[in-house]
Amino acid sequence: MAEVNKIRTDKKVSTPEMIVDLPTTIDDTIKLQAETLLRDLDVNSTTWSSPVDNVVIWRRRVRSRYNDDLGHWEPIPERIDRENYAMVIIPAAQFVNLVLAEDEANLESHVLRMKRHFPNDTIIYLVQGLELWMRKNRNIRNRQFVSAVRSGLELPDEQHPPPPSSQPQQQQQHAPRRRKPAAPQTYVDEETIEDALLQLQVLHGLLIHHTTVPLETARWIAVFTQHISTVPYRRQRDEANDAGFCMETGQVRTGDGARDTYVRMLQEIGRVTAPIAYGIAAEFGTVRRLVRGLEDGGPLRLEKVRKSVNKEGEASERTVGQAVSRRVYKIFTGRDETSTDI
After folding, report:
1. Domain check: are 49 and 94 in the same one?
2. What is the mean predicted confidence (pLDDT) over 127-145?
3. Cα(220)–Cα(16) distance, integer angstroms
4. Residue 130 contacts residue 216 (beta carbons within 8 Å)
5. Average pLDDT score, the chain
6. Which residues make Cβ contacts (< 8 Å) with residue 313, sequence separation at least 6?
7. 185 domain residue, yes or no
8. 307 and 269, same structural domain?
9. Across-strand partners of 91?
10. 237 and 319 fall within a common domain
């Protein structure tokens, strides 16, 4: 019981529950690096034949079930459940080809295939190397611009020096062969690619993540594994927080001891400053004594309590006053469970 009720919103605790299924079509470099990173996280990885190339999915070893009535996790016989996440890894060149394709093998058709095979999953498109491709694409545009400018500045034919007509026959035979000119590269309008990315997010509601090299792709497989491992526990915590007021550790600074916590609690009341809180704590050392004092003395019991000038409780000449006394009295002695006074 204690084991299954550990705080599993910590990814270090929840990650070893995960099993990562890597597709058989994934690049060998990514596969080897991902397996190494997952092994370091105590995560098992296997391979599977994905209906769509390069799709990573996740499974979980489930050993507990949350009991809503009792408000805690209970151990159950271990089973393996499929997580509702599917991540497809697409190199930049393939992504661009999908965007530019005009036949059935286009990006729209790829998305529909993903949704058909993974209808209940949150689909993630991990595009590798698109930033590098964008830089190369801009270089093509710049070269084309420079070439166009130079072609417009060429000299007329009569100003070009005539080519040498007399060369030894032997030199002509042994002249080095010139390489064939490379095929001209085509510039792709960047707005077309950006529009495609926007459509994936806005029209299809998919998640998109970018990486640069295979090592980064493998690292993000591990990062997504850690994040997905905490999802059910964070969801259950959020639902519990919605049912009642609760804050995570660290959002409110805790006291160094019982007295410091008592003083900080008093300062959460509106208009109760630190000098007033220390003065009240000096007069009534505990919450129980404060409540009894207010019940016996009435709404103005704290009116003449002197404020404190320091943490040691040294009193000053100024007093708490009637307004603050009535506010504290109403909060500590009120019986209205719907009251929001503080």
Report:
1. yes
2. 88
3. 17
4. no
5. 85
6. 278, 279, 281, 282
7. no
8. yes
9. 128
10. no
Our count of domains for the chain comes to 2
Which value, to the nearest 10 degrees, does the dihedral of the CA atoms of residues 303, 304, 305, 308 take?
A: 110
pLDDT at 237: 80
Specify whether the CB–CB gap between 15 and 41 falls below 8 A: yes
Strands (DSSP E) contained in the chain are: 18-23, 44-48, 55-67, 72-91, 122-128, 207-211, 306-308, 315-319
User: Are residue 239 and residue 286 in the same domain, yes or no?
Assistant: no
Distance CA 75, CA 17 (A): 14
121 neighbors 85 (Cβ within 8 angstroms): yes
In this prediction, residue 157 has a pLDDT band, given cuts at 50, 70 and 90, of very low
Do 121 and 84 touch, CB atoms closer than 8 A?
yes
Could you tell me whether strands 122-128 and 207-211 are parallel, antiparallel, or unpaired per DSSP bridges?
Answer: parallel
Count Cα atoms within 13 angstroms, Cβ side, for 147: 8
The pair of structure tokens assigned to 2 is: 């204690």
**Residue 160: inside a domain:** no
What pLDDT band is residue 155 in, cutting at 50, 70 and 90? very low
Could you give the 3-state DSSP secondary structure of residue 149? helix
pLDDT band at 128 (very low <50, low <70, confident <90, very high): very high
At residue 178, the pLDDT reads 62
Q: 279 to each of 93, 156, 302, 311, 342, how far by Cα in Å?
A: 71, 97, 10, 9, 19
- State both tokens at 271: 């208009």
Question: pTM of the entire structure?
Answer: 0.63
Residue 62 lies in domain: 11-133+190-243
Read off the pLDDT of each residue in 185-194 and give the average, rounded to a whole number.
85
List the one residue out of 132, 238, 140 whose CA is nearest residue 189: 140
φ and ψ of 152, to 5 deg: -80, -15
Strand arrangement, sheet containing 207-211: 44-48, 18-23, 55-67, 72-91, 122-128, 207-211
